[in-house]
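# step 3/5: fold
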Amino acid sequence: MSLAIVGSACTVLGTGDAGSNMVSGGDCTPSDEGGSAPAPSFPGSGTSGAGEPITADLDSLSCGASRLGTPVDETAQVDCYYTNSNPTTPMAFVERVVEIAESEELVHVRLTLNPAFVDNTYGETAIGWGGEAQPEQQPAPGGPGQPPAPGGGPKPKGHKGHTFKDLVGSDKAQFQLTDGKGELVLDFFVDYVSADEAKPSGYGSLGVLGGEGKMLLGDAGAVVAATTSLDRDLNACGYGAYVVDSPETDESYTPNPQAPGWDYRVVYDVWVSASAFGAAGFGDATISYVHASPSKYPSDTLTVTPGPCPPTTCEGEDPPAGEGGGDPGEEPGGGEECKDSGGECTANADCCWDSDVCLGGVCQPFDVPQ
């Protein structure tokens, strides 16, 4: 797995194109000429600072306040995750860093999904969920000049749309954390949002022990805290009235003056005690798929593969040198014809369907663990 140190990202107001790493803003800092790429800046983070890198001096449990923990130098890592049919546009990225909070060492992991797959817009103000023309800047799942692969593109016009109830008690993310020897130590689901009378809005993330949250392996006590972007929107940021329609925005997710801190992206944050990994220490945190029910794509579950993040390019500048997420002209399967379900494969990228995984040398539909 290729890792990159997290650096300054272009996250001024969190607006731009979900299908690229091009960001506008006067403070935009491009990737180094050597190709060292920070986490992508998916649009929609609002003005609270939620779009800053995981190392920023911000507390993810609040709405823009200073963090309580201190990142440990040279522990920040980021990987982008790509679908079978699109090796150039990340469908998600995972950041992780070791933090010290009140003398306790924690591993902070953050998953951010591309808003072209799912977002925090719903009700009458939903963006890209059908009933209107799809945004022109959606990623092209089949790659430039290629037709979309099966299961690859946004849902067609006329899809039933997106409601707040779609998000409540139905969405989750699975994290797998290993120790320094590569042994799987923790495997769990984090609940996105569920009914919660203890929260000001009446809704919030129930972490790993409620709603869609669940421990698959390891001790739940090792998970110190968990939250999501919608939990922060509704509670920490004080936007609890938006439980029918989300704050109105446009296809670039321009902040709404009535709710400027609203994060339109779907983001999961989790903190784990470093002691859970024993003498071997923390190794890595990964995902194998992205899921949303519903998503903007024909399939609600897409298998993903980690890789380097594409270089960040500031508006009006040429892309920096160095590796990105892959050759824009590259086809699934390394330039060879992709395989339908049941076809022989050696890697997920050999499979045509974004919802397929290569198991036992055969492309087959991926089933989300229960």
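# step 4/5: annotate
The two ends are 26 Å apart (CA to CA).
# step 5/5: archive (pending)
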